[in-house]
């Protein structure tokens, strides 16, 4: 539901394109591709299998090449760059904004970087070096140093004359920043305020000094949260001495938010958000093998627990038939609690302040559902194997496992975070290990005690 | 990683607040709460257990009440509204923008709606009715009818005089819209252009007519995709006759993007994104019971498959010990493919145009990993039970199940979408049912054939 519309639209384009490519008619493909925005071309390239991908990449207008490279995942970007010769690359990235160029620079061949640096004027070269000096995923890397500043002691008409002289403003400029002589950030003036006030009005009466500046070292995730919690369209970036360094705009923040979401979804399956949909098979297989290996270890642990009860299983084969039910219900219930917790942690809504209340609630939910499903599963199992004791065993094991699942669902993400391990990545594996082990242990243990006596 | 910073910051606040609340000192709580933005207060209220939540809600500045209600999930909103008397509610929502009021109106008691409508002037009442006439999750519901329009045949100085006379512009205005006499949308003029051009410049030379208008019936998800693919900050909304109806701004779009992400994460665990972290226990239990019930049915199906092989299990108990490994590895591998597919579908990157190439790639990855892990698991099992034939059986079953998992991971989301079922919600359940059933069937079937002869 969440995405049917886009799907329908894009999948139609994809099919048309695919047919045109198959038939070898490149004219219509070129026309179709160049009606798209760079982000859309990026999406399209990501969705094409190698072979077709290179053909379409060759048809993209040269002037869009740089922007398109910004809008694809790391793996696809590498492949596209490998497909271009140095001159093309220099031309493609030469016109990018400083912050965008900084994004790409590490993926470029040295020779291309040298050429690009040589073609820049000194001011821009210094700006690029400054942006690159900040860690990846920090505000410093997100900011564009190209900002329009004014002084507080002039009037609106002075600013208007200056702007008319200056001509075009940097893209997505909604405010001018007011700075001191030492370039310290004092506040901002909206373009709207400049337009709606009389020419004689002094700037210092129009200053909005409520907008806090972002420290250059703030993490990209925190920047994104501030933007979305406070409905900002842009924000100034300053260093430790409150010197204005640049500005971050909402369009870059939207990309971060999308990446965060991608990470949450993909990490739970042990996948990397930069992975190419059409990675070469050996590379994709190798990467996924790691995740399968971890899960194999946990599966063997569960098998080892079952192995402890071989004597029981030989005598009561019904336990072998029913045991996956107890483990799987525990896994499902625990995953529900875990998912709520991981989201709560990501939103900063879960912490030591409300942990006990949450645990109580989740345990009660687990107990209630444990009881309900224990009765249902117990009755069904007793009927199936015509043995009331089997029903009692599975009912008791189920109740225990659902309570454990609730406890594990709350505790595991908190523990993982303590250990600085990403709960979105590792939470599911650890949780299902617990619910499998406890599920088999409780069920087969109770079975041994009750049925073999 | 993705969220540590926010977590640390907010969880500190949460703890401070919790302590202050426990000690009953409400002064510091009030001061702390009212330094937050409405969205942050919303997050905070969502994170508080009932009891504390009502206390903090009572401390929020009355003027922020309306905005806070906009920033909480449906369930929490209901609870907060139930906590206010009608006069408070009328005061809280009376000052909201039309699009925001439309968001809330269905949750308000009739008496309050009447009061609010009575207090509005005729123009705003008509605008509200118009916005409400569009379906939820459409562009019509997202738009704010409050836009500033100009004619094409005037010059910059006429517009400047008009704006100075008008005073303040609606929040987040970055463009004025140019309309015909019949109010048809012709294009837009950026505030930046008005500021950087000479007063004598005619508006029709500044018009940007490249920005397409959004049809009022476009789905909210599609609107969000357009904004993020094309780096828009705002966009005009028109009806079928190209009459300008309003404008959508990026801050509302950011909320949609966050909701989409939430949906993807929570749906896979059968959870609703509007659910309150502190739902009353019976309500939370009832809702989750449905999901557990569905999974119970699939677990019984898997048990039934195992039950077909009771005779085998009685004779070779090692099969009972090892069988969960085959099923669980299939589930893990299949979930990886499924997760990539669901994301690809959401981004419009997967469709009938590239389905075959994707299927081939995923099947090859499955085959390669099937082979590798078959050897590993086969050797380990053969050693454990000192029986080469058991090793062979599990190796063969594992290879089969990983191939089936790849096929199912590609096919299930495409089929579900064909049936208009949300793959993010149902994909996981259907997939693990397939990998469980095929895993047990292949392993126990091969075991029966090879070991009982």
TrEMBL record, chains A, B:
**Alphabetical keyword list:** CBS domain, Cell membrane, Magnesium, Membrane, Metal-binding, Transmembrane, Transmembrane helix, Transport
Q: How does the protein's chain sit in the membrane according to the entry?
A: Multi-pass membrane protein
Q: Which Pfam families match?
A: CBS, MgtE, MgtE_N
Span of domain CBS: 143-206, 207-265
Q: Which CDD domains match?
A: CBS_pair_Mg_transporter
InterPro entries given in the database record: CBS_dom (IPR000644), CBS_dom_sf (IPR046342), Mg_transptr_MgtE_intracell_dom (IPR006668), MgtE_N_sf (IPR038076), MgtE_transporter (IPR006669), SLC41_membr_dom (IPR006667), SLC41_membr_dom_sf (IPR036739)
> Which PROSITE patterns does the record cross-reference, listed alphabetically?
CBS
Main location group: membrane
Location relative to the cell:
Cell membrane; Membrane
State the oligomer form and interacting partners.
Answer: Homodimer.
Name the family the entry cites: Belongs to the SLC41A transporter family.
* Function (record text): Acts as a magnesium transporter.
**Name used for this protein in its record:** Magnesium transporter MgtE
> Which organism is the protein's source?
Pseudomarimonas salicorniae
Gene behind this protein: mgtE
């Amino acid at each position: 539901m969440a995405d049917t519309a886009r799907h329908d639209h894009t999948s139609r384009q994809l099919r048309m394109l695919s047919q045109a490519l198959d038939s070898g008619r490149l004219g219509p493909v070129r026309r179709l591709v160049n009606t798209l925005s760079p982000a859309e071309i990026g999406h399209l390239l990501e969705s094409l299998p190698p072979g077709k991908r290179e053909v379409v990449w060759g048809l993209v207008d040269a002037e869009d090449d740089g922007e398109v490279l910004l809008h694809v995942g790391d793996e696809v970007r590498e492949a596209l760059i490998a497909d271009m010769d140095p001159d093309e690359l220099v031309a493609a990235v030469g016109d990018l904004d400083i912050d965008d160029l900084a994004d790409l620079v590490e993926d470029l061949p040295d020779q291309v970087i040298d050429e690009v640096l040589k073609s820049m004027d000194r001011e821009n070269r210094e700006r690029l070096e400054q942006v690159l000096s900040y860690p990846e995923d920090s505000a410093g890397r997100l900011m564009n140093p190209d900002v329009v500043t004014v002084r507080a002691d002039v009037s609106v008409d002075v600013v208007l004359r200056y702007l008319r002289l200056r001509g075009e403003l940097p893209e997505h400029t909604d405010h001018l920043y007011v700075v001191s002589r030492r370039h310290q950030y004092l506040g901002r003036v909206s373009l709207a305020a400049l337009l709606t006030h009389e020419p004689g009005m002094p700037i210092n009466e129009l200053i909005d000094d409520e907008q806090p500046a972002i420290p250059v070292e703030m993490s990209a995730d925190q920047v994104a949260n501030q933007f979305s919690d406070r409905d900002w369209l842009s924000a100034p970036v300053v260093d430790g001495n409150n010197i204005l360094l640049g500005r971050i705009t909402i369009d870059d923040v939207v990309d971060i938010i999308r990446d965060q979401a991608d990470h949450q979804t993909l990490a739970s399956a042990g996948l990397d958000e930069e992975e190419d949909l059409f990675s070469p098979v050996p590379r994709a297989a190798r990467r996924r093998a790691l995740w399968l290996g971890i899960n194999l270890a946990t599966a063997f642990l569960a098998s080892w627990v079952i192995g402890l009860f071989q004597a029981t299983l030989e005598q009561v084969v019904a336990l072998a038939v029913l045991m996956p039910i107890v483990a799987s219900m525990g896994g499902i219930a625990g995953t529900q609690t875990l998912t709520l917790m991981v989201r709560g942690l990501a939103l900063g809504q879960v912490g030591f302040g409300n942990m006990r209340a949450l645990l109580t609630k989740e345990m009660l939910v687990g107990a209630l559902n444990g009881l309900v499903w224990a009765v249902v599963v117990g009755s069904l199992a007793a009927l199936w194997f015509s043995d009331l004791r089997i029903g009692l065993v599975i009912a008791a094991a189920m109740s225990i496992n659902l309570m454990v699942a609730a406890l594990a669902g709350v505790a595991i993400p908190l523990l993982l975070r303590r250990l600085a391990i990403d709960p979105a990545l590792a939470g599911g594996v650890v949780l299902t290990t617990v619910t499998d082990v406890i599920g088999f242990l409780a069920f087969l243990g109770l079975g041994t005690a009750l049925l073999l006596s």
